[in-house]
Design goal:
The structure holds two protein chains of two kinds. Chain A is mainly alpha-helical. Helices cover about 60% and strands about 5% of the residues of chain A. Chain A has 25 helices and seven strands. Chain A has a three-stranded antiparallel beta sheet with strand order 2-1-3. A two-stranded antiparallel ribbon of chain A has the order 4-5. In chain A, strands 6-7 form a two-stranded antiparallel ribbon. In chain A, helix 1 runs antiparallel to helix 7 (about 115-135). Chain A is globular and about 90 Å long. In chain B, helix 1 packs parallel to helix 7. In chain B, about 45% of the residues are buried. The chains are: A mainly alpha, B alpha/beta. The complex binds flavin-adenine dinucleotide and iron/sulfur cluster. Iron/sulfur cluster binds near residues 450 and 494 of chain A. Iron/sulfur cluster binds near residues 450, 453, 469, 492 and 495 of chain A.
C-alpha cells in the first residue's frame, strides 16, 4: 500500500512538473491576418503601436512567451506615452498590459501544445489526477478503521510549516501572481483546457476558465480525501458533498452554459459583497442589456444579499453559506483541510481579525456606494475621489492580493481560512447576523471537557473553542463557519453544533456542570 | 512587608482552578509553586502530543500572559517540607516562604509494585511532562513495546505507541479489559476493538519480570504465563497513587492520600488538599474516597476557592459522570452503572448488530428508578442526565425521552428506535419515543411535562 502511495505521489509530481514546464514550451507566430482581427475587435487606433507590432512581431517566430510579451508591452507603453504627451486620448490603449498581451498570445500560439491539446491535458491534469488518487485512495486501508485521523500532523513537514509547507506556499503564491497579474505567461496552460471550454461555452479557454477548471479538479480530488478521512462523520460527508456540488454546478457549469446561450456569465450563489463588482457599471449595463434574464439576475443578486442570506443565517448560522455553499469555503474545506490547525488562536489575532474583516466590509460598502452614485449621477468621482481608482484599489488589494494570493497561497503558513477570517466582507456581514440574531450555536457539555485543546487546535477560524468549553459556556462567535471539526475531534463528546431557541444562547454558568455549589 | 500569599503547591487542574476562582472574587496575593512545568497544561492531552495531533503549547489552556494579567505568580520549584505551625514551607533550594493559607494539589504518581527490573532503562509510566519527554527521546529506538496494566492510561499509551508504528503487547491482569468498571458485555466490545487495531491484547496475564540487555536497557518481558516478549520499552500503567511522599514527614495527616474533611481541610489549620492527592475522610454515598479524575480536581478547586474567599463551602460533587475514549470508541457515563450489579440494581443493555454502538442503563428493579447510563459511540447531553438523576426519574421516563438526551452531531445515524424496540420487548411496555423538544432540553426540567 505504501509503495502504491509513493508511486501515486511520483506520478502526481511528474504531472505537476510537466504542467509547470508547459510555460516554457511551444512557440508563437502572429500572422498579419490575426493581428488585423485584434485591431478591429479591440478598436485600436494607435498607428504607432500597430506599426511597432507589425515590424517586430508579425510573421516572426518566437519560442518564449516572456520574450514576445516583453515586446508587446514595451510597444504598448511607448505608444501610450507618445499619445499621452500629444493628448491623443482616443489612441491610448487602456487595457492592462499583460491582459492585452495575453489576448495576442492566445491567438498567436503555435506548435506542439496547441496541436496536441488532449495529449498535454492527459500528461498534466490526467497524470496529476491519477497520481493523487493513487496517493489518496489507499488511505482507506492505511489510515485504519474509521475515526479521527490526525496522527503525525505535527511531524509532517508539509503540515507543520516545514520545508515542504514553505515550498507549497511559494508555489501557490507564484501561481496566483501569474494568474492575476501575468496571464500572458501562462497562456499555454489555457490551451490544454480549450477543448473543454469550447464544449461548454463555445469559446476558447481564458485564464479564468483554466482557474475554474483547476479549482473544480482540485476540489474533487480533495473531496475524495475528505470522504476517506471523515468517513466516520456524516456531517462532514454531507457538507463536503454540498460545497463540491455548488462549486461544480453553480460556479462552473451553469455560468459557462449561460455564456453558450449568450447570457451574462453569472454564479447564482456568489452573493454581494463577496461578489464585489456586482454593482459595477459594466456589470449593471451588461445585465440590463441582456433583457429579462439580466434583470432577473439583478433582482436575484439583491434578494440573495438582502433577504436569503440573513434569513438563512437566522435559521442555520452562517455555516449554510461558508461551509456548505461558498466556493472560497469549498476550497478551504477540501484543499485546505490538511492545514486547518495552522490558524492563529491568540487573542491578538482575534483583535486583528475584527478590525480587518469589518474594515473590508466597510470598504466594500463605501466603494459600492461611490459606484452607485457615479452610476446614477454620471459623475466620475465622488468627494473628489475617482470612483474608478477606488474600484481599482479594491480589486487589486482585496479581490486579488487578499482573496487569492494571501487567501489561498498562505494555506500552509496561516491555515486555510485566512481570507474568510480576516478579509471576506460577506463573512463579516453573515457574522454580524450570526452573532446577534441567529438560532445557531455550539452547545457545550462543559462538565465533560478535559481542556485537551483538540477543538481549538483544529478550529480553522482560530476560535479558542476550549476557552468556552471548559467554562461550560455555549459558543456564539461571529466568525464560526460551522465546519463541525471541533465537535468531530473532541474526544469527550463536549461539543454539538445546533440550531435552537434564541434565549440565553450566550449564557455562561458560573461553574461548568457537575458541581453542586 | 507584604502580607504572605495563599500558596498553592501544584499547577494542575485542581490548583489552577482554585487560583482562578479566588482571583474572580478577591485580590489576595497568590503564589503557585510547581516543579513540573512553568505553565498549567492539560495532563489529559499528553497522548495527543506524542501522536502528533498537538504541539506542547496547545496543551496549555491559557495564553502565557494570562497569569501575569491576573497576578497569579508562578514559581517553578519543588517544595520539600511544610511547617504548618509557623505557616512556612521549604523549597529544594533551601529558601523558606511564609503562607497565609496553603493548598496542597500535588496530584498523583504512577504505581510501581516492586516488579523485578522495573527501574531498567526503557521502563516508565506515563504521568508527567518529563515522562512524555523520556518516551519521545526513546521513541526512535522502540520497535516493540509492552504495556502493563489495563486502565485508561494503559489503553492511551497503547494507542500512542501504535500510532507511531510500534508493535504493542498489552498485558491486562483482569479477565477482560477494565471489567472492574465496565459491565461484561461492554468490556467485551472494548477487548474486540483493541484487537481490531492490531494490539496484542493478553488478558488475565501478569508481569513477572523485566529483563535488560548488557546496557541496562529493557529487552524482554516475562509473563506469569511463562511467555517471553521481546521489547525495547515497557509502559507501567497499573494505576496511580496520591503524590504525598514529602507530606508524610510533616504533621499533616495522611493515609493513602492527604486526609480531608468535607470542607477539604486537612488536620492542620489553614492547610487544604484537593485533586488527586486528597482522600476524603467521609466520601459521599456511592463515591470513592480518592477520585483521581480531572473533573473532581476541578470541582474541588471551585469549592475551595469559595472557602478561601470567605464563604466556607462543603465539597459536594453532585451526580457522578465521566468519559473516555478507547481508540475510536467514545465512552460516556452519567450516574452509577456497576460492573457487577448487586442488590436491586439491574441493567438494560443494547448493542448495535455490527457497529460498536452500545448503551447500558442501570435501574432499580423494585422502583425502576434510573441509576445511571453508559454509552459507547453515542454522545449524551450532560445537563439532561444530571437533571434526571437529581429528580430520581424512572427508567421509563428516560427511555421515552431518549431523543432529548442525544448529543451526537447533526445527521448522525440515530439508534433510539432500535433501542426503544428492544426496551419495550424486555420491559413488556409500549413506550413511544417523544420528539425532541427544545423547551424540555432548555429547561432541563425534563419529564415534568
Ligand atoms: C495520561 C493521562 C491521561 C488522563 N486522562 C484523563 C481523562 O481523560 N479524564 C480524566 O478525568 N482524568 C484523566 N487523567 C487524570 C487527570 O489528569 C488527573 O486526575 C488530574 O490531572 C489531577 O490533577 P491535580 O491538579 O490533582 O494534579 P496534577 O495535575 O498531577 O498536578 C500536580 C502538580 O504538582 C506538582 N508537584 C507535586 N508535588 C510537588 C512539590 N513537592 N513541589 C512542587 N510541585 C509539586 C506536580 O509536579 C504536578 O505538576 C489522566 C491522567 C493521565 C496521566
Ligand atoms: S476537544 Fe473537547 S475535551 Fe478537548 S478541550 Fe475541546 S471541548 Fe474540551
Amino acid at each position: 500500500m505504501k509503495k502504491l502511495q509513493q508511486l501515486g505521489l511520483g506520478i502526481f509530481l511528474i504531472g505537476l512538473a510537466l504542467f509547470c514546464s508547459l510555460m516554457f514550451l511551444g512557440s508563437y507566430n502572429l500572422s498579419n491576418n490575426q493581428f488585423q482581427k485584434i485591431i478591429e475587435s479591440k478598436r485600436i487606433k494607435s498607428e504607432i503601436f500597430t506599426g511597432k507590432i507589425k515590424s517586430k512581431i508579425v510573421d516572426k517566430e518566437f519560442s518564449s512567451s516572456f520574450e514576445i510579451s516583453e515586446i508587446i508591452i514595451n510597444s504598448l507603453k511607448e505608444s501610450n506615452k507618445i499619445h499621452k504627451t500629444n493628448r491623443e486620448w482616443n489612441k491610448v490603449i487602456y487595457d492592462k498590459p499583460h491582459s492585452f498581451s495575453y489576448e495576442i498570445l492566445k491567438v498567436a500560439g503555435t506548435g506542439i501544445i496547441k496541436e496536441n491539446k488532449v495529449l498535454f491535458w492527459l500528461l498534466t491534469f490526467g497524470l496529476g489526477i491519477f497520481g493523487s488518487l493513487l496517493f489518496i485512495i489507499p488511505n482507506i486501508i492505511t489510515l485504519g478503521p474509521p475515526g479521527i485521523k490526525n496522527n503525525g500532523i505535527y511531524f509532517n513537514s508539509a503540515t507543520n510549516r516545514g520545508f515542504l509547507g514553505w515550498f507549497v506556499f511559494i508555489f501557490l503564491v507564484v501561481f496566483y501572481v501569474l494568474l492575476y497579474f501575468y496571464p500572458d505567461y501562462i497562456v499555454n496552460w489555457t490551451y490544454i483546457v480549450d477543448p473543454i471550454s469550447e464544449n461548454l461555452s463555445g469559446n476558447p479557454a481564458s485564464q479564468w476558465f483554466l482557474y475554474g477548471f483547476l479549482y473544480c479538479t482540485v476540489m474533487t480530488v480533495m473531496a475524495i480525501r475528505m470522504y476517506i478521512k471523515y468517513r466516520n462523520n456524516k456531517y462532514q460527508i454531507l457538507r463536503t458533498t454540498s460545497v463540491w456540488f455548488f462549486q461544480i454546478v453553480f460556479a462552473f457549469l451553469i455560468p459557462e452554459i449561460l455564456v453558450r446561450f449568450e447570457k451574462p456569465w453569472y454564479d447564482f450563489k456568489n452573493a454581494f459583497p463577496l461578489d464585489y463588482d456586482f454593482f459595477f457599471s459594466w456589470n449593471l449595463n451588461s445585465l440590463i442589456d441582456s433583457g429579462g434574464f439580466g434583470l432577473f439576475i439583478l433582482v436575484w443578486g439583491i434578494v440573495l444579499t438582502l433577504i436569503i442570506v440573513p434569513v438563512m443565517v437566522y435559521f442555520f448560522g452562517k455555516r449554510w453559506y461558508c461551509s456548505w455553499v461558498c466556493g472560497c469555503g469549498g476550497l478551504a474545506e477540501t484543499l485546505g483541510d490538511p492545514f486547518r490547525h495552522l490558524s492563529n488562536k491568540s487573542i491578538g489575532a482575534w483583535k486583528l481579525e475584527r478590525w480587518l474583516v469589518h474594515g473590508v466590509l466597510v470598504f466594500s460598502l463605501l466603494m459600492t456606494g461611490f459606484t452607485l452614485y457615479s452610476y446614477f449621477s454620471g459623475s466620475q468621482s465622488v468627494l473628489g475621489i475617482k470612483t474608478q481608482s477606488i474600484q481599482n484599489i479594491y480589486g487589486f488589494l482585496i479581490g486579488s492580493i487578499f482573496a487569492g494570493v494571501i487567501g489561498t497561497g498562505f494555506y500552509p503558513i496561516f491555515g486555510n481560512r485566512v481570507w474568510c477570517r480576516f478579509g471576506c466582507p460577506l463573512a463579516a456581514y453573515l457574522g454580524l447576523v450570526q452573532r446577534f440574531k441567529s438560532r445557531f450555536r455550539i452547545t457545550t457539555n462543559g462538565g465533560q471537557c478535559i481542556s485537551c485543546g483538540n477543538c481549538s487546535t483544529y478550529c480553522e477560524m482560530g476560535i479558542d473553542v476550549r476557552a468556552y468549553a471548559q467554562k461550560g459556556q455555549d459558543i456564539v462567535r461571529s466568525s464560526c463557519v460551522g465546519c463541525g471539526v471541533c465537535s468531530a475531534v473532541c474526544p469527550r463528546g463536549v461539543l454539538k453544533l445546533e440550531n435552537g431557541p434564541l434565549e440565553n444562547r450566550t449564557y455562561a454558568p458560573e461553574f461548568p456542570l457537575g458541581n453542586s455549589l | 512587608m507584604n502580607a504572605p500569599p495563599i500558596i498553592i503547591i501544584g499547577n494542575g487542574i485542581a490548583g489552577i482552578t482554585t487560583a482562578r476562582h479566588i482571583r474572580k472574587k478577591s485580590n489576595k496575593p497568590i503564589l503557585i509553586i510547581s516543579k513540573e512545568s512553568k505553565y498549567f497544561f492539560s495532563r489529559t492531552a499528553l497522548m495527543y502530543v506524542y501522536m502528533g495531533h498537538l504541539k506542547w503549547e496547545h496543551t496549555q489552556p491559557y495564553e502565557s500572559h494570562f497569569w501575569k494579567k491576573n497576578k497569579l505568580n508562578l514559581l517553578q520549584e519543588t517544595v520539600t517540607n511544610i511547617d504548618s505551625e509557623n505557616k512556612k514551607i521549604t523549597l529544594s533550594n533551601e529558601s523558606i516562604l511564609s503562607y497565609d493559607s496553603l493548598v496542597l494539589a500535588t496530584g498523583s504518581i504512577p504505581n510501581k509494585f516492586g516488579w523485578p527490573g522495573e527501574n531498567h532503562k526503557g521502563v516508565q509510566g506515563l504521568y508527567s511532562k518529563q515522562d512524555l519527554e523520556n518516551l519521545e527521546s526513546l521513541s526512535a529506538s522502540i520497535q516493540e513495546a509492552v504495556i502493563v496494566g489495563g486502565g485508561l492510561i494503559g489503553i492511551e499509551l497503547a494507542e500512542m505507541l501504535h500510532s507511531r508504528g510500534k508493535k504493542v503487547t498489552f498485558l491486562v491482569r483482569e479477565k477482560s479489559f477494565w471489567n472492574n468498571v465496565l459491565p461484561k458485555q461492554e468490556s467485551k466490545i472494548i477487548n474486540q476493538h483493541i484487537l481490531s487495531h492490531g494490539i496484542d491484547l493478553r488478558l488475565d496475564t501478569n508481569l513477572e519480570e523485566i529483563i535488560a540487555d548488557e546496557n541496562g536497557r529493557v529487552k524482554l518481558v516475562r509473563t506469569d504465563k511463562g511467555d517471553l516478549i521481546s521489547c525495547q520499552f515497557v509502559g507501567l500503567t497499573a494505576g496511580v497513587k496520591p503524590n504525598v511522599e514529602f507530606i508524610k514527614q510533616t504533621n499533616i495527616a495522611t493515609n493513602r492520600g492527604i486526609l480531608v474533611n468535607k470542607y477539604l481541610e486537612t488536620n492542620q489549620p489553614g492547610v487544604y488538599a484537593i485533586g488527586d492527592c486528597a482522600e476524603q475522610k467521609e466520601p459521599q454515598p456511592g463515591r470513592r474516597s480518592i477520585e483521581a479524575v480531572w473533573y473532581t480536581g476541578r470541582m474541588m478547586g471551585e469549592t475551595l476557592a469559595q472557602t478561601l474567599t470567605g464563604t466556607k463551602t462543603e465539597y459536594n460533587p453532585g451526580n457522578w459522570f465521566n468519559s473516555a475514549k478507547f481508540f475510536d470508541i467514545e465512552y460516556q457515563t452519567y450516574g452509577l452503572v456497576s460492573a457487577h450489579p448487586e442488590d436491586n440494581e439491574k441493567h438494560f443493555h443494547w448493542k448495535h448488530s455490527v457497529k460498536d454502538h452500545a448503551i447500558t442503563i442501570a435501574y432499580n428493579k423494585e422502583t425502576y428508578e434510573f441509576l445511571g447510563i453508559n454509552t459507547f459511540g453515542i454522545r449524551m447531553r450532560h445537563e439532561i442526565f444530571d437533571q434526571i438523576l437529581s429528580d430520581k426519574r424512572t427508567v421509563f421516563q428516560v427511555a421515552e425521552h431518549l431523543k432529548d438526551c442525544n448529543f451526537d452531531p447533526e445527521f448522525f445515524n440515530s439508534y433510539e428506535e432500535e433501542i426503544i424496540t428492544k426496551f419495550n420487548l424486555e420491559f413488556k411496555t409500549k413506550i413511544k419515543l417523544k420528539r425532541k423538544s427544545w423547551s424540555r432540553i432548555f429547561n432541563s426540567k425534563l419529564m415534568k411535562s
